[in-house]
Input
Amino acid sequence: YGRAVWDLDGDQNDMDIAREAVACTRAFFRRLGLPSKLRDVGIADGSNFEAMAAKAAPRCGTAYVPLGKDDIVSIFRAAF
Output
């Protein structure tokens, strides 16, 4: 993704490319005025993460990487 979309230096290791690609994507979203954190869309705290994850989990069991409720809560916390 970093090499193909952002044309990042192919000589860097994969993890460095991935981190740089995330930074490029964040900057791109910012330039477009798009939210990149849950608090940017009005979620004031993490008090509903468990309930949100419980609703999302049934649809995430067959994802490319199957996600359970605890996985989804972890993602919400990271995105807050």
